[in-house]
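Internal tracking record. Fields below are filled automatically when a chain is submitted to the structure queue. Please do not edit lines marked as system-generated. If the sequence contains nonstandard residues, flag them in the REMARKS field before resubmitting.
Queue: standard
Priority: normal
Entity type: single polypeptide chain
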Amino acid sequence: MTNNLQQQVRSVVLQHGRLTGVTDLKDDTDLYSVGLTSVATVAVMLALEATFDIEFPDRFLTRQVFESIQNIARAISELTGETRATGAM
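SYSTEM-GENERATED OUTPUT FOLLOWS
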């Protein structure tokens, strides 16, 4: 997975995730533990779909997928066919 992809995901999450007082996120930070709500998750998902020109299928609409920058980037890599994604969600 490219650092650029993770950086783009991080930017979208910080912009649309409504995470009050959070200015930086590690790739494995539990986004829900720092304030991501279900409503904000939808906003993040829609922004990611627009940014990467993708659509998250139903099987990706889980808390686990949106739990961290790393998991989101992994899902996007799978949807865009990037072969460098490793590990299971």
